[in-house]
Structures are given as structure tokens and as C-alpha cells.
């Protein structure tokens, strides 16, 4: 089977480039010939003009790739939000005549807005996107249900993203290198500094936890609300108890996971099944998070994670206190998370993924016939 993957460029922030390259490597031994073409921004700081010119050039490259060789299916690794719609719709329209079956692999979607009142522009553009696609791949059963409510006739499949474990080697960076004090339990948050990730609830919960027991919070991430995060730290008196490490990657991020005792992600909106949850599972960490999307699919209460309601700092503080006070429970949950990670092995994921692509290609051929 010949597949054209449209993927972000190497070096672009986010998990998609790594996920796509892992899939490509795993699909090869299964007899799948995958060609990668770049689609999306050329840097994390593109100007509006650079964005328009860059996407036009990308569309030209995709059209030429489709003309050079026959493909059984084209997979676009993307997301579902207004910027992604503005980028992907012109691509699908421009490639429509030459394109094989089109599969959109959505690494996060705003499917909840499709079932809510309003959002007319989003819904109109999304309906157009669905008509131009043969199938959509989402990362949770919750998303599939929401998409089916919006587009009952659409072919919506749930897939898992592959994950390659980082290994059991000890961290190469110590606490001092990450500006974290010694001798206290460490809570780790990895994500964008925006309210929807629950960072402000976590800061409020951290203040409550500190009233009962010593601990430190390491925040790995950047975002447009970084200034507000710093203000919240001052308001709660957390300057000595929280480290804002900024965006971490590579060995620095791996060390942060290995040094932590608990992972917290009290997000209001999960992008499918966040890669940071997989990274925390790989590090053998117990998890405190919300029961949303992929977390509801793959994590079990008390076994892999403690679930809290979004926007509830008191419940978040209680869950953190429970884990910080119970070392055997932390170890038990961490071991369970490492076992659960096996279902995301690249080989297992690639086999299911390839089966879906073959089904989509056969379905298009059947309709055409």
C-alpha cells in the first residue's frame, strides 16, 4: 500500500512530528510504502504573509507529489480548530481532482463546539471539511461520539498515537539544574500556560497543599498567559515553591519526568490523549487529571490516575495530598501506568492504523465502482 503522509516540519514545537515519524517507521515493516511531505508552518514564528506564501508553496508541492506517483491514500496530520481549517480546506480543494482517498488524522479537535449552540463559522467550515474527506481519525471515543452527532454519515475512527518508551536510565540532570529544591516531593505540570490547561487551578491547589505538607511544583511549558501565571504565583505566595522552567524538550524534559513524584494535568479540554500523559506513564508516575477524552478511555480511577473535576482546586489539592502521603499507592499506580503503556507500542498501533487505511481505500473504490 502506498501512502502519502502530510506532516509538520522537523523542529516545529509539539508532538505531531515525532508521532508521524514513529508511525512511518512502524508501517514500513508491514509492507506500507509511506512518503512524507511537509504541510504547515516553516517556523514557530511565521508572519501572516509568510504563512500565506508558505501554505501556497506547500499546496504546490503536494500537487506535484500526487502527480508523480499513484497513492492509495493521503493522510493529513493536523488538528481541528479555526487556524487548521483555514489551512486545510484550501489544500483539500486544490488537491481534490488528483487526490486518492483523504484521511485526516486529528491530533486534537474542537468537536465539543460542534454540538454546542453558536459557532456557525466553525460548523460551516467543518461541514465542508467533512465533505472533502473520506475519513477522520480521532483520539478518543468522546470525540467520535461528538463528531457523529455533528456528521452522522461521516467515517470517524478512533486511533491511538504510537509511543516509544524513553528507557529506564536515570536522569542526566539533577534538581539543581532544573532549579528545584532538594528534599521535598515534586509535582510536575507539562503543558501550555493557558487557563484551559488548568494551570491556575493547580497554583491555587498548590497553595492549599503547602498548608498541609511541604512540596514543590515544577511547571514545564510556555504560553500566552505566562505573565498571568507569574501574577498568580505572587498572589498565592508561591515564589519559593514553584519553578517556571519554560518550554523543555529532550533530556531536560526527560529528567523532569524522572525527578517528579506526581504528574498533574487538570485540563478543561484534552486534545485527544495528550502525549504528556504518555510521557508521565513512561516515567512511572501516578497521575492527577480530569476524566476527559482519552484519559477516560485509557486511565482507570485509582489504578492509573486520580480524577478530579475541571475547575475544582479543592478537589485537586485533595488528590495531590492523597498521593503525596501514600508512597505505596504512588508506586502501585506508577507500575500500572508502565504496563498500560504497552497498548501504545508502535507495532500494535501501526497494525490497527494500516487496517483502517485499507478499509478506507476499499470503501472509496467500492463507491467509485
Low-confidence stretches: none
CATH topology of the largest domain: Rossmann fold
Report the top-level CATH class of the largest domain.
Alpha Beta
How much helical structure, as a percent, in the residues? 40-55%
- Count helical runs: 14
Residues in β-strands, percent: 15-25%
- Cα(first) to Cα(last) distance is 19 Å
Structural class: alpha/beta
Sheet with most strands: 6 strands, parallel
Count of domain modules = 2
Mean pLDDT: 94
Q: SSE string, helix = H, strand = E?
A: EHEHEHEHHEHEEHEHEHEHEHEHHH
| CATH architecture annotation name of the largest domain | 3-Layer(aba) Sandwich
Relevant CATH superfamily of the largest domain = Glycogen Phosphorylase B
Q: Count the beta strands.
A: 12
Strand arrangement across the biggest beta sheet = 2-1-3-4-5-6
Backbone shape? globular
Radius of gyration: 21 Å
Amino acid at each position: 500500500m502506498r501512502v502519502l503522509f502530510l506532516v509538520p516540519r522537523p523542529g516545529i514545537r509539539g508532538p505531531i512530528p515525532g508521532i508521524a515519524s514513529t508511525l512511518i517507521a512502524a508501517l514500513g515493516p508491514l509492507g506500507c510504502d509511506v512518503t512524507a511531505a511537509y504541510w504547515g508552518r516553516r517556523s514557530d514564528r511565521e508572519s501572516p504573509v509568510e504563512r500565506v506564501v508558505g501554505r501556497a508553496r506547500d499546496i504546490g508541492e503536494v500537487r506535484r507529489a500526487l502527480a508523480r506517483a499513484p497513492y492509495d491514500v493521503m493522510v493529513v496530520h493536523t488538528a481541528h480548530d479555526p487556524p487548521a481549517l483555514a489551512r486545510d480546506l484550501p489544500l483539500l480543494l486544490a488537491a481534490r481532482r488528483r487526490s486518492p482517498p483523504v484521511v485526516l488524522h486529528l491530533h486534537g479537535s474542537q468537536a465539543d463546539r460542534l454540538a454546542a449552540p453558536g459557532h456557525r463559522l466553525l460548523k460551516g467550515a467543518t461541514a465542508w471539511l467533512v465533505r472533502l474527506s473520506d475519513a477522520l481519525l480521532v483520539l478518543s471515543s468522546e470525540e467520535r461520539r461528538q463528531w457523529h452527532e455533528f456528521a452522522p454519515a461521516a467515517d470517524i475512527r478512533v486511533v491511538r498515537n504510537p509511543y516509544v518508551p524513553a528507557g529506564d536510565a536515570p536522569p542526566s540532570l539533577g534538581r539543581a539544574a532544573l532549579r528545584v529544591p532538594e528534599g521535598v516531593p515534586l509535582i510536575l505540570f507539562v503543558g501550555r500556560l493557558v487557563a484551559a490547561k488548568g494551570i491556575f487551578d493547580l497554583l491555587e491547589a498548590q497553595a492549599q497543599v503547602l498548608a498541609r505538607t511541604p512540596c514543590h511544583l515544577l511547571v514545564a511549558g510556555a504560553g500566552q498567559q505566562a505573565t498571568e501565571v507569574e501574577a498568580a504565583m505572587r498572589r498565592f505566595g508561591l515564589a519559593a515553591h514553584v519553578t517556571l522552567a519554560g518550554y523543555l524538550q529532550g533530556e531536560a524534559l526527560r529528567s523532569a519526568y524522572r525527578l517528579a513524584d506526581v504528574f498533574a494535568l487538570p485540563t478543561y479540554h484534552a486534545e485527544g490523549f495528550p502525549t504528556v500523559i504518555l510521557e508521565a506513564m513512561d516515567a512511572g508516575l501516578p497521575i492527577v487529571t480530569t476524566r476527559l477524552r482519552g484519559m477516560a478511555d485509557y486511565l482507570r480511577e485509582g489504578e492509573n490516575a486520580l480524577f478530579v473535576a475541571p475547575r475544582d482546586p479543592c478537589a485537586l489539592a485533595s488528590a495531590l495530598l492523597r498521593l503525596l502521603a501514600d508512597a505505596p499507592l504512588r508506586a502501585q499506580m506508577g507500575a500500572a501506568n508502565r504496563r498500560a503503556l504497552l497498548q501504545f507500542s508502535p507495532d500494535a498501533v501501526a497494525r490497527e492504523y494500516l487496517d483502517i487505511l485499507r478499509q478506507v481505500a476499499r470503501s472509496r473504490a467500492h463507491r467509485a465502482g
